[in-house]
Amino acid sequence: MPRFDLSLAELQDYRPEVSEPSDFDDFWSATIAGSREAGGEVTVSAASELYATVDVHDVTFPGYGGDPVKAWLILPAHREGPLPAVVEFVGYGGGRGLPTERLAWATAGYASFVMDTRGQGSVWGSGGETPDPHGSGPAVPGFMTRGIESPETYYYRRVFTDAVRAVDAVRSLPEVDASRVAVTGGSQGGGIAIAAAGLSEGLVAAMPDVPFLCHFERAIGFTGSDPYQEVVRWLAVHRGAEARAFETLSYFDGVNFARRADAPTLFSVGLLDPVCPPSTVYAAFNAYRGEHKEMSVFPFNEHEGGQGYQWEAQAAFLRRVLGGSA
């Protein structure tokens, strides 16, 4: 993939005007409050005896509207006292998969909490187990246009609320130090992590990796890749619906959540990424409110980004943020 976006110098100074609804904060405050008021229990059960150095637990917690959402809780088998936790969100089309695919954070000494993404888990990986019981109007195959007619019905309203409730759930666990919780994820998971950072208080770190769901106004029509192209296909059929669709998307733009996030953050970007163009990543990064922010740049990588190199950078970053306590 040849370079197609702005130069690195231009990206580092890229601060576009991104639409923000006047009732953005009220919308999200009401959404989160309503889901917390819906209640529901966090249930934890042992999931496997195959592992000698980690303990694996199957978790169900209440998400949007109290809907049950699945997660893995993976803990170091040998631990003393409550642990710092990393809440991880999954990329587009994937589910929480199998515990063996999610061992890294526990091996580094953290409580690892991997959230299943409602309605997803059948495109790649080892599957998901969380249904999305809410319907939508006519939509393009995929998730980007489900309920796009309004912010109240849009799919990511439920997913982002699930993410906030995942942070709530992990903070309720006796194995976790509620004051030391970080969020992370790649691609869609990175976009969810930015939303969680903007909607949750007191996080110690946010580590979005090649994040999706940022700067919709540029991404849609700028890149020919899915998932953004799903919205292009929807608009090509629903002629004249552009204003309505983009108004809905403005409630879910990572740039607007970044403006409200203050936890120390480490982003990453692939400068050849055709899925999440570099300018969309930098739009969120440059808008990020927190003063402690870093960017890992991979000049010759596409959407795979830094992969294992970036995980090691995240682990080192989180250890610094926590003062070497994990």
TrEMBL record:
InterPro entries: AB_hydrolase_fold, AXE1_dom, CE7. It comes from Microbacterium paludicola. Residues 1-319 form the Acetyl xylan esterase domain. It comes from the Bacteria. Signal peptide: none annotated. Its EC number is 3.1.1.41. It is an enzyme of class 3 (hydrolase). This is Cephalosporin-C deacetylase. Keywords: Hydrolase. GO terms for molecular function: cephalosporin-C deacetylase activity.
